[in-house]
Amino acid sequence: MECSSPYCEIDEEEEEESFFEEHFWYFIIPSAIILGIAIFLEFFYEMVLLGQIFAISSIFLSSYGVVTEAIEDIKHKRITANILMIIAAVASFFIFHGQEGATAILLYAIAERLEEITNDKSRNAIKELLELAPDDALLKIDNGYKNVPAKEVQIGKIIGIKPGMKVPLDGVIMKGSSYFDESAITGESVPVFKNEGDEIFAASLNSDSFVDIEVTRESSNTIVAQIAESVKQAQLNKSKHERFIEKFARYYTPIIILAALMVMIIPPLVWGLDFNDWFYRGLILLVVSCPCALTLSTPLANIASLTKQAREGILVKGNRFIEEVNDIEVFAFDKTGTLTEGKLKIFEIFAYNGIDREEVISIAASLEALSEHPIGKAIVNEAKNKELAFQSVDSFEVIKGKGIRGQINGESFYVGSKSYIEELNYQLPLKDLEDIESSGTIPILLGNNQKLLGIISIRDVLRVTAPILINGLRERGYETVLISGDNQAVCDSIGACLDIDHAYGEQLPDQKLEEIKDLKKKYKGVAMVGDGINDAPALALADLGIAIGASATDITLETADVIIINDDLKKILTYIDISKKTNQKIKQNIWTSIIVKVSFAVLTVIGLMTLWLAVGIGDMGVSLLVLLNGMTIFRYKFKYKEISSEELETEAKILVCEHCKTEKIIPQHHGRDMLLSKDNDKLICWRKMLDSEGLEPCEEELPLFCPKCENLLEVK
After folding, report:
1. Whole-model pTM?
2. Which pick of 184, 305, 407, 601 has the fewest CB atoms within 10 Å?
């Protein structure tokens, strides 16, 4: 048996309200007054017949919604609570309990209305997501700007964003800079500074400066539109609890109807007991056994969870991925772009065998211009900053997990990791490679068919929120694993820094899959966290795939089960907490429904239950309790403070002694570059500058004295 109310179908489109629904209370209040008169006439003046007439009048005013829904249910061949309520109400008049039947209909109608109001809060939250972005855009034209509908602006067009104006479409800043409040999309309440080249989301609020942005997504495909649509579609991706309850309800209905008939018939026929009494008990059993509360117990909590997570900048692609959290025992992580920012910087360039440093960058950048790898982008950006010429590349090929190759002017070149270049049997500068790796940087090698031409050292920085995430996972009882294509030394360094349980480096894409398979054999559930592009196969294979990144590309949306819209790793803890709270609420709802139903059914059979108590408490009362309990998910608040990493950024690369010309790369501590103290006399760990409940400060210091001549080092 299904809950008959249209409010149980939370993914259903909104329908236009009928006259009765629009003026609901104008019908219900007179109905309640007339019912009160009916009860008064019967109990105080014993005017039974007149009381029954008034009860019928009360039902006439309050039953429109119940009757129309029951007719629809009959058309669709469904036995629902509406039908049972009508049967119980009509039958009650045959045994002169019409006031109780009228009370049942009145309470049922009121409860259905309250359910609708409660459910609309969840449904409207999705609708509000779509309405966050303004309908109009300021389109740039030849002689200024023109106000046009946002849906008419095409990709590649330039629009202006005034201070205090919401961004209508996703885009990239082409001119200007400003602070943007992205809380509507990412849940991040602290405004974020955006400069030229940075991505902007629709519905972000521009704080202080006029900027021009180039539109990258049409209005129907903005991130906020994708979130709203995905939340809506996610309701169809049902959890195990929902599927079980739906299946259970199909078998439950005939059993309850049969039980009610047996209660009505067997005692009078077999033992000669009073027919009216047992017929009445059978009617109560029909009403009290209605599984409305049970069918509402899971979907309402799930939609509240999906909507709350969307508000926090977390896109969950199905109810079952809320339930999946209960089975996860280990979290596996990619490194670059996940635990680290992926904003790679070039620190040193080594040239060998007759070419200079600029030529090393020029050749490598020409090849990497055809690659999408973050390392390649860092090399390309360096070439652009140096205004170096890019050369035409032929026969370009990506060697997965190793590097790239291509031809320039008929000569073959190779760019990639140490292990990739070692396959070419070059004479490698082992001392330089050892120094590069020990400094925490990644060596990228360039060579041709005969010899090594250069090494480019690249360094990434740890995300500020990575230690908070790993600490939070440990506190919640999860194990952690790092699986990366970077060399083992770098992975060990990151693993030790974050106190990750296991670190596996130098993993090719197919080896990452094997690691996930091995983890699935050891643990009940495995979650994989990656950038959603290079890690797509691993995300798909894991029991739960979580993609990190604001780009939300098509492959990310297709592969990952959960998407963190911005790059805040703390959101994974938010996702876990909300999902576990949701699962807890669902269990509470299910057991409350079952216990109340069974208890009231027993009380009915032994004659200690009335029809109005059965409806008011046993059916509609527990249904409303279930709804309100599920809605408490909206009250969840994350305990950790938000962190801005802007003050932790530094453009400095090296320490220089002007006396003896010694140069040293600025060291990292806890995964990020050390920073100058306020007195400029020492370097300190970035964690000393933070004030966060989830991250203990670090007191590591490094005096700025040259190790050779003990003169003061300068930071450049």
Report:
1. 0.74
2. 407
